[in-house]
Amino acid sequence: MSEQDASLVKGMVARGDRKHDIAAWFGVNQGRIAEVEKGELHPDAEEADEEELPPPGPYSSGQSSFAASEALRSSRKALRQAIKDIDAALEQLDNGSKLQD
Fold first, then answer.
1. pLDDT attached to residue 96
2. Predicted local confidence at residue 60, as pLDDT
């Protein structure tokens, strides 16, 4: 955890965020958050200002994030196919209008 991260942790603690949510944001266990809070890790880090903080939790779980990424991949595949279909339809329209000219 960097000193900048520790500054954010201190700001999130001061804001009243749950330790579990703070740990989830950084992808660490709650022990790292406690170390920052107790001054054992980056004791000189300044508390970040409210406007610098991430939105308050709770945050998505790994499982939820994975499901969201899979949904996005599926959507991308469908959009790519839709673009191909649109391009083919436009080409047919363009060819039809050339024949009528």
1. 79
2. 84
Alpha carbon distances (Å) from 82 to 2, 92, 95, 96: 44, 15, 20, 21
Give me 10's structure tokens: 């201190």
Q: Give the per-residue pLDDT at 61.
A: 82
Q: For residues 48 and 8, give the distance between their C-alpha atoms in angstroms, rounded to a whole number.
A: 5
Question: Is residue 32 a contact partner of residue 41, using CB atoms and an 8 Å limit?
Answer: yes
Give the list of residues 6+ apart from residue 34 with CB closer than 8 angstroms, or none.
19
Provide the sign of the torsion angle of the four alpha carbons 36, 37, 43, 47, taken in this order. positive
Half-sphere exposure of 95 (CA within 13 A, CB side): 6
pLDDT band, very low/low/confident/very high, at 101 (cuts 50, 70, 90): low
The Cα–Cα gap between 83 and 95 comes to: 18
